[in-house]
Amino acid sequence: MPTILQYMKKYYVLLSFVSLVCMLTACKKSNQTNTPSIIDSLYFPPINSNNWQTISPTSLGWDVTALNNLNTYLSNKNTKAFIILKNGKIVTEQYFGAFTADSLWYWASAGKTMTALLVGIAQREGLLNINDISSKYLGSGWTSEPLDKENKITIRHQLTMTTGLDDGVPDNDCTLPACLQYKADAGTRWAYHTGAYTLLDQVIANASGMPFNNYFQQKIRDKIGMNGSWIKIPNSNNVYYSNARSMAKFGLLLLNKGNWNNLPVLNDSIYFQQQINTSQNLNLSYGYLTWLNGKSSCMVPTLQVVFPQSLIPNAPADMFAALGKNDQKIYVVPSQNLVIIRMGNAADSSQFSVTAFDNELWGKLKQALRL
User: Fold this and answer.
1) Pick from 95, 104, 46: which is nearest to 74 by CA?
2) pLDDT classification of 206: cutoffs 50, 70, 90
3) Which among 8, 60, 92, 302 has most CB atoms closer than 10 A?
4) Domains with residue ranges and CATH for the chain
5) Quick check: 13 and 302 in contact, CB under 8 A?
6) Which pTM does this prediction carry?
7) What is the mean pLDDT of the chain?
8) What is the pLDDT at residue 40?
Protein backbone atom coordinates (compact mmCIF):
# COMPACT_ATOMS: atom_id res chain seq x y z
CA MET A 1 0.00 0.00 0.00
CA PRO A 2 1.57 3.35 -0.95
CA THR A 3 2.27 5.88 1.79
CA ILE A 4 1.22 9.51 1.60
CA LEU A 5 4.81 10.60 1.15
CA GLN A 6 5.17 8.31 -1.84
CA TYR A 7 2.15 9.94 -3.40
CA MET A 8 3.58 13.37 -2.64
CA LYS A 9 6.57 12.51 -4.76
CA LYS A 10 4.40 11.39 -7.67
CA TYR A 11 1.50 13.81 -7.56
CA TYR A 12 1.52 17.57 -7.10
CA VAL A 13 -1.88 17.44 -5.49
CA LEU A 14 -0.48 15.34 -2.65
CA LEU A 15 1.75 18.20 -1.66
CA SER A 16 -1.45 19.28 0.03
CA PHE A 17 -1.17 16.66 2.67
CA VAL A 18 1.69 15.37 4.75
CA SER A 19 5.40 16.06 5.42
CA LEU A 20 7.17 14.66 8.38
CA VAL A 21 8.37 17.56 10.44
CA CYS A 22 6.32 20.26 12.00
CA MET A 23 5.99 23.64 13.50
CA LEU A 24 3.65 25.35 15.81
CA THR A 25 3.93 27.95 18.48
CA ALA A 26 4.74 31.60 17.93
CA CYS A 27 5.61 34.29 20.37
CA LYS A 28 4.64 37.87 20.57
CA LYS A 29 3.34 38.83 23.93
CA SER A 30 3.09 36.06 26.51
CA ASN A 31 2.45 36.38 30.21
CA GLN A 32 1.48 33.35 32.23
CA THR A 33 0.67 32.43 35.74
CA ASN A 34 -0.60 28.85 35.81
CA THR A 35 0.78 25.32 35.74
CA PRO A 36 0.72 23.02 32.71
CA SER A 37 -1.62 20.53 34.37
CA ILE A 38 -4.47 19.56 32.07
CA ILE A 39 -6.73 19.20 35.09
CA ASP A 40 -6.71 22.98 35.53
CA SER A 41 -10.11 24.53 34.98
CA LEU A 42 -10.51 26.29 31.68
CA TYR A 43 -10.42 30.06 31.51
CA PHE A 44 -12.94 31.86 29.29
CA PRO A 45 -12.39 35.48 28.23
CA PRO A 46 -15.25 37.88 29.03
CA ILE A 47 -17.72 38.23 26.18
CA ASN A 48 -17.98 42.02 26.02
CA SER A 49 -14.33 42.86 26.52
CA ASN A 50 -10.97 42.71 24.77
CA ASN A 51 -9.38 41.34 27.92
CA TRP A 52 -7.91 37.85 27.72
CA GLN A 53 -5.66 36.42 30.39
CA THR A 54 -2.21 35.24 29.38
CA ILE A 55 0.20 32.64 30.70
CA SER A 56 3.96 32.45 30.11
CA PRO A 57 5.59 29.54 28.27
CA THR A 58 8.26 29.45 30.96
CA SER A 59 5.70 28.63 33.64
CA LEU A 60 4.51 25.75 31.43
CA GLY A 61 7.99 24.34 31.03
CA TRP A 62 7.98 24.96 27.27
CA ASP A 63 11.08 25.54 25.14
CA VAL A 64 11.14 29.32 24.91
CA THR A 65 13.97 29.36 22.37
CA ALA A 66 12.04 27.08 20.05
CA LEU A 67 8.98 29.26 20.47
CA ASN A 68 10.93 32.39 19.59
CA ASN A 69 12.36 30.72 16.49
CA LEU A 70 8.86 30.13 15.20
CA ASN A 71 8.32 33.78 14.36
CA THR A 72 10.62 33.73 11.37
CA TYR A 73 9.27 30.36 10.29
CA LEU A 74 5.68 31.56 10.49
CA SER A 75 6.49 34.73 8.58
CA ASN A 76 8.24 32.74 5.86
CA LYS A 77 5.16 30.51 5.63
CA ASN A 78 2.84 33.43 4.78
CA THR A 79 1.18 33.44 8.19
CA LYS A 80 -0.96 36.42 9.19
CA ALA A 81 -2.10 35.41 12.68
CA PHE A 82 -1.09 32.66 15.09
CA ILE A 83 -2.44 32.01 18.59
CA ILE A 84 -1.86 29.27 21.14
CA LEU A 85 -4.20 28.81 24.11
CA LYS A 86 -3.34 26.64 27.10
CA ASN A 87 -6.19 26.06 29.54
CA GLY A 88 -7.97 28.86 27.69
CA LYS A 89 -5.25 31.44 28.36
CA ILE A 90 -3.08 32.99 25.65
CA VAL A 91 0.48 31.69 25.60
CA THR A 92 1.42 33.36 22.34
CA GLU A 93 -0.41 35.72 20.00
CA GLN A 94 1.49 36.75 16.90
CA TYR A 95 0.54 38.94 13.93
CA PHE A 96 2.59 39.49 10.78
CA GLY A 97 2.97 42.35 8.33
CA ALA A 98 0.03 44.74 8.27
CA PHE A 99 -2.31 42.18 9.81
CA THR A 100 -3.51 43.11 13.32
CA ALA A 101 -5.73 41.80 16.08
CA ASP A 102 -8.60 43.71 14.45
CA SER A 103 -8.03 42.43 10.91
CA LEU A 104 -10.61 40.09 9.40
CA TRP A 105 -9.69 36.97 7.45
CA TYR A 106 -11.56 34.08 5.88
CA TRP A 107 -11.87 30.68 7.52
CA ALA A 108 -12.45 28.80 4.25
CA SER A 109 -13.38 25.18 5.03
CA ALA A 110 -12.50 25.57 8.71
CA GLY A 111 -15.98 27.07 8.85
CA LYS A 112 -17.44 23.66 8.01
CA THR A 113 -16.81 22.54 11.58
CA MET A 114 -18.78 25.52 12.87
CA THR A 115 -21.69 24.60 10.57
CA ALA A 116 -21.63 21.05 11.94
CA LEU A 117 -21.99 22.38 15.49
CA LEU A 118 -24.88 24.58 14.36
CA VAL A 119 -26.63 21.55 12.85
CA GLY A 120 -26.31 19.89 16.24
CA ILE A 121 -27.90 22.90 17.92
CA ALA A 122 -30.79 22.86 15.44
CA GLN A 123 -31.30 19.15 16.08
CA ARG A 124 -31.26 19.64 19.86
CA GLU A 125 -33.91 22.35 19.43
CA GLY A 126 -36.08 19.90 17.55
CA LEU A 127 -35.88 21.81 14.26
CA LEU A 128 -34.42 18.89 12.31
CA ASN A 129 -33.01 15.41 12.63
CA ILE A 130 -29.76 14.50 10.93
CA ASN A 131 -31.36 11.27 9.71
CA ASP A 132 -33.96 13.28 7.78
CA ILE A 133 -33.59 13.25 4.01
CA SER A 134 -32.16 16.55 2.82
CA SER A 135 -35.06 17.02 0.40
CA LYS A 136 -37.34 17.59 3.39
CA TYR A 137 -35.68 21.01 3.77
CA LEU A 138 -34.30 21.65 0.28
CA GLY A 139 -37.26 20.39 -1.76
CA SER A 140 -37.19 17.86 -4.57
CA GLY A 141 -34.79 18.54 -7.39
CA TRP A 142 -32.01 20.15 -5.37
CA THR A 143 -29.69 17.82 -7.28
CA SER A 144 -29.77 16.55 -10.86
CA GLU A 145 -29.95 12.95 -9.60
CA PRO A 146 -32.91 10.67 -10.26
CA LEU A 147 -35.46 11.25 -7.51
CA ASP A 148 -34.95 7.83 -5.94
CA LYS A 149 -31.20 8.50 -5.62
CA GLU A 150 -31.69 12.04 -4.32
CA ASN A 151 -34.06 10.80 -1.65
CA LYS A 152 -31.34 8.56 -0.23
CA ILE A 153 -29.28 11.59 0.78
CA THR A 154 -29.70 12.65 4.41
CA ILE A 155 -28.35 15.51 6.49
CA ARG A 156 -25.96 13.00 8.04
CA HIS A 157 -24.52 12.29 4.59
CA GLN A 158 -23.91 16.01 4.09
CA LEU A 159 -22.17 16.16 7.49
CA THR A 160 -19.91 13.21 6.67
CA MET A 161 -19.05 13.92 2.99
CA THR A 162 -20.84 10.76 1.88
CA THR A 163 -23.66 12.14 -0.30
CA GLY A 164 -22.40 10.19 -3.30
CA LEU A 165 -22.55 13.34 -5.41
CA ASP A 166 -19.71 13.81 -7.88
CA ASP A 167 -16.87 15.88 -6.40
CA GLY A 168 -15.11 15.87 -9.78
CA VAL A 169 -17.42 18.38 -11.45
CA PRO A 170 -15.67 21.48 -12.87
CA ASP A 171 -16.76 23.63 -9.89
CA ASN A 172 -16.69 21.69 -6.61
CA ASP A 173 -18.22 24.67 -4.77
CA CYS A 174 -21.24 25.04 -7.05
CA THR A 175 -24.61 24.44 -5.38
CA LEU A 176 -26.80 24.51 -8.50
CA PRO A 177 -28.65 21.27 -9.31
CA ALA A 178 -26.70 20.97 -12.58
CA CYS A 179 -23.48 20.76 -10.55
CA LEU A 180 -24.79 18.15 -8.12
CA GLN A 181 -24.54 14.98 -10.16
CA TYR A 182 -24.85 11.31 -9.27
CA LYS A 183 -21.63 9.40 -8.71
CA ALA A 184 -22.61 6.72 -6.20
CA ASP A 185 -25.39 5.89 -3.80
CA ALA A 186 -25.38 7.98 -0.64
CA GLY A 187 -23.28 6.43 2.12
CA THR A 188 -21.11 4.30 -0.17
CA ARG A 189 -18.37 6.78 -1.17
CA TRP A 190 -16.40 9.41 0.79
CA ALA A 191 -15.40 12.49 -1.18
CA TYR A 192 -14.63 16.05 -0.10
CA HIS A 193 -17.42 17.98 -1.79
CA THR A 194 -18.00 21.58 -0.71
CA GLY A 195 -21.10 22.17 -2.85
CA ALA A 196 -23.06 19.40 -1.12
CA TYR A 197 -21.93 20.60 2.31
CA THR A 198 -22.79 24.25 1.66
CA LEU A 199 -26.46 23.45 1.24
CA LEU A 200 -26.58 22.62 4.95
CA ASP A 201 -26.85 26.39 5.37
CA GLN A 202 -30.16 26.31 3.53
CA VAL A 203 -31.26 23.25 5.50
CA ILE A 204 -30.71 25.19 8.73
CA ALA A 205 -32.36 28.33 7.40
CA ASN A 206 -35.47 26.48 6.23
CA ALA A 207 -35.68 24.40 9.39
CA SER A 208 -35.34 27.41 11.69
CA GLY A 209 -37.30 29.93 9.63
CA MET A 210 -34.40 32.37 10.05
CA PRO A 211 -31.61 33.52 7.71
CA PHE A 212 -28.60 31.30 8.29
CA ASN A 213 -26.40 34.21 9.41
CA ASN A 214 -28.98 35.33 11.97
CA TYR A 215 -29.42 31.84 13.39
CA PHE A 216 -25.65 31.42 13.67
CA GLN A 217 -25.20 34.78 15.36
CA GLN A 218 -27.93 34.03 17.89
CA LYS A 219 -26.87 30.47 18.69
CA ILE A 220 -23.05 30.62 18.58
CA ARG A 221 -21.38 33.92 17.71
CA ASP A 222 -22.99 36.24 20.21
CA LYS A 223 -23.02 33.66 23.00
CA ILE A 224 -19.22 33.35 23.04
CA GLY A 225 -18.29 36.90 22.03
CA MET A 226 -17.02 36.26 18.52
CA ASN A 227 -17.11 38.82 15.75
CA GLY A 228 -17.48 38.24 12.02
CA SER A 229 -20.06 37.10 9.53
CA TRP A 230 -20.76 34.57 6.78
CA ILE A 231 -20.34 35.97 3.27
CA LYS A 232 -22.38 34.15 0.66
CA ILE A 233 -21.13 33.69 -2.89
CA PRO A 234 -24.19 33.27 -5.15
CA ASN A 235 -24.82 29.61 -6.07
CA SER A 236 -21.58 28.70 -4.36
CA ASN A 237 -19.71 28.71 -1.08
CA ASN A 238 -20.60 30.48 2.17
CA VAL A 239 -17.41 31.73 3.84
CA TYR A 240 -16.91 32.98 7.38
CA TYR A 241 -14.72 36.03 8.08
CA SER A 242 -13.55 37.11 11.54
CA ASN A 243 -10.53 38.23 13.51
CA ALA A 244 -8.06 35.69 14.88
CA ARG A 245 -9.30 35.82 18.47
CA SER A 246 -12.79 34.86 17.30
CA MET A 247 -11.32 31.78 15.66
CA ALA A 248 -9.54 30.98 18.93
CA LYS A 249 -12.81 31.43 20.85
CA PHE A 250 -14.51 28.88 18.66
CA GLY A 251 -11.62 26.50 19.27
CA LEU A 252 -12.07 27.00 23.01
CA LEU A 253 -15.78 26.23 22.64
CA LEU A 254 -14.84 22.95 20.97
CA LEU A 255 -12.27 22.17 23.65
CA ASN A 256 -15.02 22.54 26.26
CA LYS A 257 -17.34 20.19 24.32
CA GLY A 258 -19.73 22.84 23.06
CA ASN A 259 -20.01 24.77 26.33
CA TRP A 260 -18.83 28.32 26.99
CA ASN A 261 -17.78 28.46 30.62
CA ASN A 262 -20.98 27.31 32.33
CA LEU A 263 -23.23 28.23 29.39
CA PRO A 264 -24.39 25.27 27.27
CA VAL A 265 -24.15 26.34 23.63
CA LEU A 266 -24.67 22.94 22.01
CA ASN A 267 -26.13 21.19 25.06
CA ASP A 268 -25.94 17.75 23.45
CA SER A 269 -22.99 15.64 24.59
CA ILE A 270 -23.95 12.71 22.38
CA TYR A 271 -23.95 14.80 19.21
CA PHE A 272 -20.64 16.43 20.17
CA GLN A 273 -18.98 13.06 20.62
CA GLN A 274 -20.33 11.99 17.24
CA GLN A 275 -18.90 15.14 15.67
CA ILE A 276 -15.37 14.54 16.93
CA ASN A 277 -15.26 10.79 16.31
CA THR A 278 -15.26 8.65 13.17
CA SER A 279 -18.61 9.16 11.45
CA GLN A 280 -18.50 6.42 8.80
CA ASN A 281 -16.27 3.49 7.83
CA LEU A 282 -14.89 5.00 4.61
CA ASN A 283 -12.62 7.75 5.99
CA LEU A 284 -11.84 7.00 9.61
CA SER A 285 -10.25 10.43 10.01
CA TYR A 286 -13.45 12.37 9.44
CA GLY A 287 -16.26 13.12 11.88
CA TYR A 288 -19.06 15.59 11.27
CA LEU A 289 -17.22 18.13 9.07
CA THR A 290 -14.30 17.75 11.47
CA TRP A 291 -10.87 16.23 10.81
CA LEU A 292 -9.61 13.60 13.26
CA ASN A 293 -6.10 12.51 14.11
CA GLY A 294 -4.84 9.25 15.56
CA LYS A 295 -6.81 6.89 13.33
CA SER A 296 -5.34 3.88 11.54
CA SER A 297 -6.07 5.32 8.09
CA CYS A 298 -7.17 8.50 6.38
CA MET A 299 -8.39 9.99 3.14
CA VAL A 300 -7.72 13.52 1.88
CA PRO A 301 -9.47 15.92 -0.52
CA THR A 302 -9.48 15.13 -4.27
CA LEU A 303 -8.15 11.57 -3.89
CA GLN A 304 -9.92 8.23 -3.65
CA VAL A 305 -6.95 6.68 -1.85
CA VAL A 306 -7.01 5.31 1.70
CA PHE A 307 -3.64 5.94 3.37
CA PRO A 308 -2.64 3.51 6.14
CA GLN A 309 -1.60 6.18 8.62
CA SER A 310 -3.01 8.91 10.83
CA LEU A 311 -3.89 12.28 9.34
CA ILE A 312 -1.07 14.26 10.97
CA PRO A 313 1.48 11.79 12.39
CA ASN A 314 3.41 14.43 14.35
CA ALA A 315 0.32 15.69 16.18
CA PRO A 316 -1.17 14.19 19.36
CA ALA A 317 -3.45 11.25 18.61
CA ASP A 318 -6.48 12.85 20.25
CA MET A 319 -6.25 16.07 18.26
CA PHE A 320 -9.20 17.09 16.08
CA ALA A 321 -9.25 20.04 13.74
CA ALA A 322 -11.10 22.49 11.56
CA LEU A 323 -9.01 22.91 8.41
CA GLY A 324 -9.48 25.30 5.51
CA LYS A 325 -8.02 26.19 2.14
CA ASN A 326 -4.69 28.01 2.17
CA ASP A 327 -3.87 26.67 5.62
CA GLN A 328 -6.55 28.13 7.85
CA LYS A 329 -6.23 26.01 10.99
CA ILE A 330 -7.99 25.33 14.28
CA TYR A 331 -6.28 22.52 16.18
CA VAL A 332 -7.85 21.23 19.42
CA VAL A 333 -5.96 18.83 21.71
CA PRO A 334 -8.13 17.78 24.67
CA SER A 335 -5.37 15.81 26.44
CA GLN A 336 -3.25 18.96 26.62
CA ASN A 337 -6.02 21.57 26.96
CA LEU A 338 -4.59 23.19 23.83
CA VAL A 339 -6.17 25.30 21.11
CA ILE A 340 -3.96 26.53 18.27
CA ILE A 341 -5.13 28.67 15.37
CA ARG A 342 -3.44 29.89 12.21
CA MET A 343 -4.71 32.38 9.61
CA GLY A 344 -2.88 33.37 6.44
CA ASN A 345 -2.10 32.60 2.84
CA ALA A 346 -1.02 29.13 1.76
CA ALA A 347 2.15 28.07 3.56
CA ASP A 348 3.41 26.29 0.44
CA SER A 349 2.20 25.66 -3.10
CA SER A 350 -0.75 23.53 -2.02
CA GLN A 351 -4.10 25.22 -1.48
CA PHE A 352 -6.16 22.40 0.01
CA SER A 353 -7.47 22.13 3.56
CA VAL A 354 -5.15 19.27 4.57
CA THR A 355 -1.56 19.99 3.60
CA ALA A 356 2.04 19.00 4.26
CA PHE A 357 2.29 22.12 6.39
CA ASP A 358 0.12 20.48 9.07
CA ASN A 359 2.66 17.77 9.80
CA GLU A 360 5.64 20.09 9.42
CA LEU A 361 4.08 22.53 11.87
CA TRP A 362 3.37 19.83 14.42
CA GLY A 363 6.93 18.51 14.25
CA LYS A 364 8.15 21.91 15.40
CA LEU A 365 5.34 22.16 17.90
CA LYS A 366 6.30 18.91 19.60
CA GLN A 367 9.74 20.37 20.27
CA ALA A 368 8.53 23.76 21.43
CA LEU A 369 5.76 22.44 23.68
CA ARG A 370 7.81 19.43 24.76
CA LEU A 371 4.99 17.03 23.93
Assistant:
1) 95
2) very high
3) 92
4) 4-102+244-369 (3.40.710)
5) yes
6) 0.90
7) 90
8) 58
